[in-house]
């Protein structure tokens, strides 16, 4: 190592270890490294808030475009009913209004209507439940939905409960 390097090295190490005042540091936005227009921004559709709930223990999950929705019963309702033995599914093309029955669920304990949280036309019932009604106990808020509905007014879902509000109503019972 040269004599000059041996002399400069301790000073360089001290200089690098010192904290510089922030006013002397040039702040650079991360966007400065990207060509204009290539920065991706992320937004969330209001429909991606996904499930909404009713006080009568049904849920509705709107599609991304808000044109269709799946309707089913909540996990709480499935547990309250007990072992489901039969599910009455709606006919394709059935027109329903919010609050009207879209099907029924029968268990060893009782039977209960499934009320539609939104208005629209039934696109398809869940064929899995025709052969395996018990599936509603396994996945009530998943693949065991009752019907898919073509929604006539997606804004009806705005008046329904979000998950936190729904859980608060369950805790009161």
Automatic annotation (TrEMBL):
It is found in: Mitochondrion. It comes from the Eukaryota. It holds the Pfam family GCV_H. SUPFAM superfamilies: Single hybrid motif. One of its GO terms (biological process) is protein lipoylation. Binds 1 lipoyl cofactor covalently. Keywords: Lipoyl, Mitochondrion, Transit peptide. The modification N6-lipoyllysine is found at residue 109. PROSITE patterns: BIOTINYL_LIPOYL, LIPOYL. Its main location: mitochondrion. Its cofactor is (R)-lipoate. GO terms for cellular component: glycine cleavage complex; mitochondrion. Residues 68-150 form the Lipoyl-binding domain. InterPro entries: 2-oxoA_DH_lipoyl-BS, Biotin_lipoyl, GCV_H, GCV_H/Fam206, GCV_H_sub, Single_hybrid_motif. The keyword 4Fe-4S does not apply. Signal peptide: none annotated. Belongs to the GcvH family. The glycine cleavage system is composed of four proteins: P, T, L and H. PANTHER family: GLYCINE CLEAVAGE SYSTEM H PROTEIN, GLYCINE CLEAVAGE SYSTEM H PROTEIN-RELATED. The H protein shuttles the methylamine group of glycine from the P protein to the T protein. This is Glycine cleavage system H protein. The gene is GCV3.
């Amino acid at each position: 190592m040269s004599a000059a390097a041996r002399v400069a090295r301790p000073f360089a190490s001290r200089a690098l270890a010192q904290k510089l005042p922030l006013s002397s540091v040039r702040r650079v936005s991360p966007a400065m490294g990207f060509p204009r227009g290539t920065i991706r921004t992320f937004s969330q559709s209001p429909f991606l808030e996904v499930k909404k709930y009713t006080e009568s223990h049904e849920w509705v999950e709107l599609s991304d475009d808000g044109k269709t929705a799946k309707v089913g019963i909540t996990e709480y309702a499935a547990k309250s009913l007990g072992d489901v033995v039969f599910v009455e599914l709606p006919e394709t093309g059935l027109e329903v209004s919010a609050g009207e029955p879209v099907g029924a669920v029968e268990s060893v304990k009782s039977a209960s209507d499934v009320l539609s949280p939104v208005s629209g036309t039934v696109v398809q019932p869940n064929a899995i439940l025709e052969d395996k009604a018990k599936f509603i106990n396994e996945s009530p808020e998943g693949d065991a939905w009752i019907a898919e509905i073509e929604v006539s007014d997606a804004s009806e879902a705005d008046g329904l409960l979000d998950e936190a509000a729904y859980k608060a109503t369950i805790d009161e019972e």
